[in-house]
Amino acid sequence: xxxxxxxxxxxxxxxxxxxxxxxxxxxxxxxxxxxxxxxxxxxxxxxxxxxxxxxxxxxxxxxxxxxxxxxxxxxxxxxxxxxxxxxxxxxxxxxxxxxxxxxxxxxxxxxxxxxxxxxxxxxxxxxxxxxxxxxxxxxxxxxxxxxxxxxxxxxxxxxxxxxxxxxxxxxxxxxxxxxxxxxxxxxxxxxxxxxxxxxxxxxxxxxxxxxxxxxxxxxxxxxxxxxxxxxxxxxxxxxxxx
Length: 242
What we know:
By secondary structure, this protein is an alpha/beta fold. It has helices at residues 54-61, 84-91, 109-119, 124-137, 153-165, 183-198, 210-215, and strands at residues 15-23, 29-38, 43-47, 69-74, 77-78, 94-97, 171-175, 202-206, 220-224, 227-231, 237-238. It has a seven-stranded mixed β-sheet, sandwiched between helices. Strands 2-1-4-5 form a four-stranded antiparallel β-sheet, covered by helices on one side. Strand 1 and strand 2 form a beta hairpin.
C-alpha cells in the first residue's frame, strides 16, 4: 500500500513522561515513577503480565486519562492542564486499536473505517479510494457492507485496525492487535504497521505474543511492579529514553 508521509518534522518527543504515577480511587499505585521519552518514528512493543498497567499506560498516551501525579507531554503539549478542545485536536493525530474493538454496530465495515476521514472533512471520492484500498489489504473487501454483528472476532479486529490507520496517524497505539487473527494475517497486519512506521508513524504495540516480538526486532518496553524498563533486540537493557 503505497502512501506518502504527511507528518511534520519535529525534534520534540511524541510521548514524554516524567515521574508519572497512576492510582484508582484510594488504591495503591498501578504505575510508579514512569519516565519515558519516545522519539518520532520509533517502534516499540509493550509487555507485562495482566494487571501490570499496560492499558493504563496506553490510555494516557491516547489522552483518555491523566496521571495521578507527574507530567505527561503528547506532541509537546502538557496534557495535565490541557483544555478539552486542544485534546480533541491532538487525538486526531492518534490511531488506536482497542482490545474490545469499539466498532459502531449501526455502521457497515466500510463506514466504520471511513469515519475518521469523514470527521476530518475529506472529499468523499478520496475517502472511498482509501477505504477500499485498505480493506483489500486486510482481505475484507468482500465484507465492506457487513455490520459488526455479522463479522467474526478476527474480522472485527481487522476492521478496528483499518479504522486506526486509515488517516495515517502520527502515533499508532495498538492493544493486542493480532490476538484474534491467524498467523498469516498477523504477519500481514504487522507489515502494515511496519510500513506506516517507515513513513514516520510512531508505533506502540501491547502484546503477550513472544513469537511476534521475536519475529520483529524492535525494542520492548516491559512493565513490572509498577516500573518500566526497555529491552533491546540484542539483549541489552536500558531506560526507556528512546
